[in-house]
Amino acid sequence: MRIGILGGTFNPIHYGHLLVAAEVREKFDLEKVLFVPSASPPHKNHPDIAPPRHRYQMTVLATRSNPFFSVSDLELQRPGKSYSIETVKELLNIYGKDSGLYFITGTDAILEIFTWKDREELLKLCQFIVATRPGFDAGKIERTILKRIHLLKTPGLDISSTDIRSRIREGRTIKYLLPEKVEEYIYEHGLYRTGKIR
Ligand code: ATP
Ligand code: MG
């Protein structure tokens, strides 16, 4: 099995995530891409992070129409902070040691997932695919790391969850930035209307 893993806060999921996943899926001929919403992101302190169940549900709604996509609640089941190394090891247990895991990130996030102690182990356990993201220069990635990852040029969508959240707070439109089903879900549950959601 060749499986892509796209971790993220998905707060909320948007077309930037979906496009990257679809491009990588096709280019690397993956059998599936697993979207893995993080429980309590170790590298973020958003005051406006929606509860995991909402982020999970929005990710399910956004990926449902693509037979190659599925959503994993692995990090939501695990208490405490989520580290990529633990997720990768669990997925290797589930899918078998021989499965090919492809860890997908944008150019901004690649360094966030390596901690000082797990970088070498992660690079041994799976391949890394780093997708270009508008506003984030791939040239900033160390050359030693660049040599060990696949850098994939994708049609850049300058969309971020941060921008979507601030649009909602300001009462501005979020149309065409994320799937309509996700947009409806956000309004139905009153997400992101204020800086703090719990
Ligand atoms: P936030 O603004 O809250 O940080 P985000 O839009 O960056 O949200 P994340 O959930 O943090 O979304 O990102 C998950 C993964 O998707 C990361 O690896 C990130 O680099 C990648 N990603 C997110 N948006 C894009 C985009 N527009 N183009 C390419 N990659 C993206
Ligand atoms: Mg981000």
Instruction: List ligands, each type once.
Output: adenosine-5'-triphosphate, magnesium ion
Shape: globular
Helical fraction: 25-40%
Terminal residue distance: 38 Å
Q: Average pLDDT value?
A: 92
Spatial strand sequence of the major β-sheet:
3-2-1-4-5-6
Strand portion, in percent? Answer: 15-25%
State the major sheet: 6 strands, parallel
Per the CATH scheme, the topology name is: Rossmann fold
Number of domains: 1
Record field, number of beta strands: 6
**H and E string:** EHEHEHHEHHEHEHH
Distinct helical segment count: 9
The name of the CATH architecture is 3-Layer(aba) Sandwich
CATH class: Alpha Beta
CATH H level, superfamily name: HUPs
Ranges where pLDDT stays below 50 over 5 or more residues in a row are none
Radius of gyration: 16 Å
| Coarse structural class | alpha/beta
Please, could you describe this protein's structure?
The chain has a six-stranded parallel β-sheet, with helices on both faces. The chain is of the alpha/beta class. The protein has helices at residues 15-27, 52-63, 74-77, 84-95, 110-113, 119-125, 143-146, 161-169, 180-188; strands at residues 2-8, 32-37, 69-71, 100-106, 127-131, 150-152. Helix content is 37%, strand content 16%. It has a single domain (2-158), classed as Rossmann fold, CATH 3.40.50.620. It contains nine helices and six strands. Strand 2 (32-37), helix 2 and strand 3 (69-71) form a beta-alpha-beta unit. The longest helix is centred in the N-terminal third of the chain and has 13 residues, at 15-27. The structure holds adenosine-5'-triphosphate and magnesium ion. Adenosine-5'-triphosphate is lined by residues 8-11, 16-17, 20, 105-106, 108-109, 131, 133, 157, 159-162.
